[in-house]
Amino acid sequence: MCVDYPEKYIEHIKLKDGLEVLLRPIKPDDEDMMLELFNTFSERTIRFRFFIPIRKMSREDIKRYCNIDYRNEMAIVAEIKENGRKRLIGVARLIRDEDDKDKAEFAVVVGDPWQNRGLGRKLTEYIIRVARDMGIKELYSRVMKDNIVSLKLSREFGFEREDAGIEYLIRKKI
Ligand SMILES: CC(C)(COP(=O)(O)OP(=O)(O)OC[C@H]1O[C@@H](n2cnc3c(N)ncnc32)[C@H](O)[C@@H]1OP(=O)(O)O)[C@@H](O)C(=O)NCCC(=O)NCCS
């Protein structure tokens, strides 16, 4: 599959503590950096993001993760330079519903060493902007009930919350 890389979604930002971060759509050659990012996730981060314990990401999963069509699926990675080397520190992803292309499920994750520095908020803000630009009208996500940080963020971004057992379904018209 040959797809155009959406360069319009490339942006440079700075976190509160001055860390310079490049936000950009994921690309096929991010596979190794994605694996490296996955290895920075604590058990808690994995549970909050994937809902089940995952010890290892298979090459196949990573390949699928990094090769997207940028129309029905979008992933924005946060990239930094550390000791002259590029590395990924977070990702925001959305996938349109198959039966209703106006709706998309989204998720954000930040590697544990970089959490609580403002990146989760920036990535959430950015994926909402990108979603709007892609013509998406509604975003939703599943958030575990003990995921205080994510629930705080979603409330501040105006997401409505619906009780769905061990998790909340959050949604917002954008
Ligand atoms: C949820 C998540 C993406 C937030 O990213 P983050 O970069 O850590 O969050 P931010 O630094 O932008 O913080 C957002 C707010 O939460 C607060 N916060 C962050 N970490 C916190 C902590 N450990 N304890 C208390 N408050 C915290 C921040 O102070 C900030 O509020 P403020 O702007 O009013 O100060 C990140 O914690 C994560 O990856 N969690 C695991 C995966 C997940 O839960 N994804 C969401 C469900 S799909």
How do you describe this structure in short?
It contains 5 helices and 8 strands. With 174 residues, the chain is an alpha+beta fold. The chain has an 8-stranded mixed sheet, with helices on both faces.
How does this structure look, described?
By secondary structure, the protein is of the alpha+beta class. The protein has one domain: Aminopeptidase. The chain has five helices and eight strands. An eight-stranded mixed sheet has the order 1-2-3-4-5-6-8-7, with helices on both faces. Strand 4 and strand 5 form a beta hairpin. Helix 1 crosses helix 3. The chain is globular, with a radius of gyration of 15 Å. The protein binds coenzyme A.
List keywords for this structure.
174 residues; alpha+beta; Aminopeptidase; eight-stranded mixed sheet; 5 helices; binds coenzyme A
Question: What is the strand and helix layout of this fold?
Answer:
Elements: E1 11-14, E2 20-25, H1 31-38, H2 43-50, H3 59-66, E3 73-82, E4 85-96, E5 103-110, H4 119-133, E6 138-144, H5 148-156, E7 160-164, E8 167-173
Helix pairs in contact: 1-3
Coenzyme A binds at residues 45, 48-49, 107-110, 115-121, 141, 143, 147, 149-150, 152-153.
